[in-house]
What we know:
The chain has 72 residues and is mainly alpha-helical. It has 4 helices and no strands. The chain has helices at residues 3-19, 22-34, 38-51, 63-71. The protein is globular and about 45 Å long.
Amino acid sequence: MSSIDTHVHKxxxxxxxxxxxxxxLLKLSLLAAVYDIADLxxxxxxKFDERNSLLLAEGSSxxxxxxxxKMS
Length: 72
């Protein structure tokens, strides 16, 4: 495995671990937004929405939908 492959594998592993931690997931989404990494921001917000779907009020939009709407 090349050095780049090793770093990518480590990044993916760490990202998967963050998905289980709501606070880290939101922090990563904010950091990704600051650095203009739209795909990662959307991924993090979507995962947060998936895990917290019961917290969303009926009829309200998700964080990912709100972010996409504001970025358009």
